[in-house]
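> forwarded from #structure-qc
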């Protein structure tokens, strides 16, 4: 965040907003902005302190990070707890991004490609050639059905999350909420600061799976360690955190629209 404001102007969203506020001489006290990133205020203050800015023109700043949760709830189908699964993890990726390519390389290097993994390539931010990995949807279907929960999600214990933003933005999309609403374990891989994502969830009443994962370790270490466990052992560990899985789902369902 906040990325280019358009493909024709290589400036950030904040730069563009400041440019327009100055153009129309708008009082900062009259400017209010709500963004979906949980750390909007922090990001804005850091950006506004840069040498080329040195001023804050957005007077009122609020975060509303649960928009995609409310959207994902529309596809909730009264999930029941299911401990019978055949794969260690699932990782679904539409766009091609640097950390997603890194993840695919990690999986190939460690013999993990027999899990549910996709890299559809509905767009590519890297400029690098890639080999599409199609699991359940091609790029056209994905653009129309990105909120639909695929059946294979219920056949994997862990969801490896490569969120939309790979930088320091804490921005949770359906990629975060699908596993929580569908009673899946989850780990963040393709984000700038995984620890801050976990902290946001903890601060909003969710629980982590410390019985299974050591969140102080690298995520690659934890994924590999998890995948080295035989499926029957994973099943037992999964059953042992059933209450947490159900609690997290219920906590997500309980969050009201516009709760901040």
């Amino acid at each position: 965040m906040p990325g280019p404001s358009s493909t024709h102007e290589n400036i950030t969203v904040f730069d563009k907003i400041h440019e327009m506020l100055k153009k129309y001489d708008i009082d900062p006290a009259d400017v209010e902005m709500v963004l979906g990133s949980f750390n909007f205020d922090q990001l804005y203050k850091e950006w506004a302190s840069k040498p080329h800015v040195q001023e804050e023109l957005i007077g009122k700043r609020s975060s509303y990070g649960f928009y995609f949760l409310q959207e994902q709830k529309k596809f909730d189908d009264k999930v029941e707890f299911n401990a019978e699964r055949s794969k260690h993890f699932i990782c679904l990726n539409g766009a091609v991004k640097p950390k997603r390519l890194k993840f695919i390389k990690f999986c190939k290097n460690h013999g993990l490609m027999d899990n549910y993994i996709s890299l559809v390539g509905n767009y590519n931010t890297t400029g690098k050639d890639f080999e599409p990995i199609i699991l359940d949807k091609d790029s056209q279907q994905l653009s129309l059905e990105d909120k639909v929960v695929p059946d294979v999600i219920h056949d994997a214990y862990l969801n490896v999350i490569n969120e939309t933003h790979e930088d320091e933005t804490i921005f949770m999309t359906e990629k975060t909420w699908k596993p929580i609403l569908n009673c899946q374990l989850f780990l963040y891989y393709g984000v700038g600061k995984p620890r801050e994502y976990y902290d946001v969830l903890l601060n909003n009443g969710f629980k982590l799976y410390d019985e299974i994962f050591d969140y102080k370790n690298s995520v690659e270490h934890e994924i590999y360690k998890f995948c080295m466990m035989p499926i029957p052992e994973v099943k037992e560990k999964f059953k042992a955190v059933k209450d947490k899985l159900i609690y997290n789902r219920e906590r997500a369902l309980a969050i009201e629209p516009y709760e901040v």
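QC bot note: The chain has a mean pLDDT of 92. Residues 13-63 form one domain.
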